[in-house]
What does this fold into?
Amino acid sequence: MTVEIVTAAVLVIGDEILSGRTKDKNIGYIADYCTAIGVDLKEVRVVSDDEAAIVDAVNALRAKYTYVFTTGGIGPTHDDITADCVAKAFGVPLDFHPEAIAIMKERLAKSGGELNEARMRMTRIPRGAALVANKVSGAPGFWIGNVITMAGIPAVMQAMLDEVAPKLKTGAKLMSESIRADAKEGDVGTELGVVAKEHPDTIIGSYPFLDETMAPNTNIVVRSRDAEKLAAAKAAIEAMLVKVRAQLGAA
Amino acid sequence: MTVEIVTAAVLVIGDEILSGRTKDKNIGYIADYCTAIGVDLKEVRVVSDDEAAIVDAVNALRAKYTYVFTTGGIGPTHDDITADCVAKAFGVPLDFHPEAIAIMKERLAKSGGELNEARMRMTRIPRGAALVANKVSGAPGFWIGNVITMAGIPAVMQAMLDEVAPKLKTGAKLMSESIRADAKEGDVGTELGVVAKEHPDTIIGSYPFLDETMAPNTNIVVRSRDAEKLAAAKAAIEAMLVKVRAQLGAA
It folds into this structure.
């Protein structure tokens, strides 16, 4: 059985993230979302509002992964240049999009405000792109090739992700099990490495934490696309932990 | 007067960030820190615990920026491969480091625990690197060339950053002023673009938000390394806002 692996990257665009002024909330959200629907998020980049940086990142990432999700830079001001950059990356013109204009007009009829030059910026869409509806604030994102361009404001980005998710190819979900080691990471690391080598179709991660007594403890997470292999690795880790804890207790 | 621009990138290493299991807290912290000390954070990447991905990212980023800060992947388990990858990126061997071993022994004498194979992993340092002290939990980071490798646990990373910060070259600080527009972003965008063009030595960003009455509002942030140019741009924006708000009121 061949299991298709569907991969993705996130490209966060904005000076405000790199200056620290705004703390990104989209990376973790998209990461959880991808895991839930069976898409492997493989890379994230954050770049500034700089044309060359954005174009280079879009082209590098779209060549490597099934999907690229961009966030940020699609508002009405001079520093919102994501649409320009995606168009440039794909070598297509940036057109005023009739449907985007109609959406903006309908919104403005309700909320008040003029369809001025600034707001018209938000109706510029790379030629050939499909619109991604924005049920929160109107101005749409878009989808061209394997690149999905969304807003930076978390509530808007989340609504856009809900719009595109049903249309994404998804792979077999990576299932996971979490095992509390009740031991220090340094005390189980050697043996855990042996288990990891013996279970090559699983991904085993080790994450230290301080438990409720403030003692160093470890969570071990096993992930696999195969339920049987996942269960076998989990059982091997639990057996290893029983052995190691007994040795530590006896020492 | 030539002002030196000191740049940096952050490379976050870890499957747990990309799966969503762990939400990164280091990017925003390092971003604030860089802004405070006069280092321009230009790019962030997050990659998985994969040798090729880490080596490629280290080499791409160290060629482009003054400094590269890596976080994550320097613990005692098989999935901690950052030291291996940085050594490979620099083409140097990874040695057991006598000072790192001494630090680990001293720690373990107090906390209990054996200097086993897993913990010895944490004493492997790329040849030629200087250690970065870890006042929180002992196991050091390191600094080789322009790459500074730190832990992923926020408290440990923060302590390591405090260790290296006094030794970093820093540039002229980017000063900033924030101006509340009391207008919708779409109503000020066109005029703000004109001001931005007239003040090329400043960086002007526009950030929509919902104010205390839940009305759409806008924060405008001006940044510059030159206090006079910053003040001039701020004054120009305030004058523009007075004019635009008067027009909107009259409409």
Remarks:
- The mean pLDDT of chain A is 95.
- The two ends of chain A are 47 Å apart (CA to CA).
- The domain at 7-167 of chain A is CATH 3.40.980.10 (Molybdenum Cofactor Biosythetic Enzyme; Chain A).
